[in-house]
Amino acid sequence: MATIARSLTELIGHTPLLELTRIEQEKSLKARVPVKIESLNPARSVKDRVAYALITEAEKNGLIDENTTIIEPTNGNLTTLSAVRHSSL
To answer: Buried (b) or exposed (e) across 40-77, using 16+ Cβ within 10 A?
Structure first.
């Protein structure tokens, strides 16, 4: 039976792997070619793990809390994950 996550953050670090068997066969490869499907991460990016680690470490060290405003000038991973950490999701 599949595990059902109770929080979006529980899904971080469990990026699905897919073996490219058709390419392996077509190219007569002797090696297996697994790829990670990063678009299936909670914030749809490889940066989810890094963003989550930054937030949890800053919280642990008392640098941020639920009242902290995070301004992120890139793709939004930090703000997305911070919002999830401090919401009821």
So the answer is: ebbbebebbeebbebbeebbeeeebeeeeeeeeeeeeb
Please, are residues 7 and 26 in contact by the beta-carbon 8 Å criterion? no
Q: Is 85 exposed, middle or buried (0-12, 13-18, 19+ CB in 10 A)?
A: middle
pLDDT in tens, 36-59: 888 888 777 777 788 888 888 988
Provide block-wise average pLDDT over 10 residues at a time, the chain (89 residues): 80 88 96 91 78 86 86 66 56
What amino acid positions are annotated as catalytic residues? Answer: 47
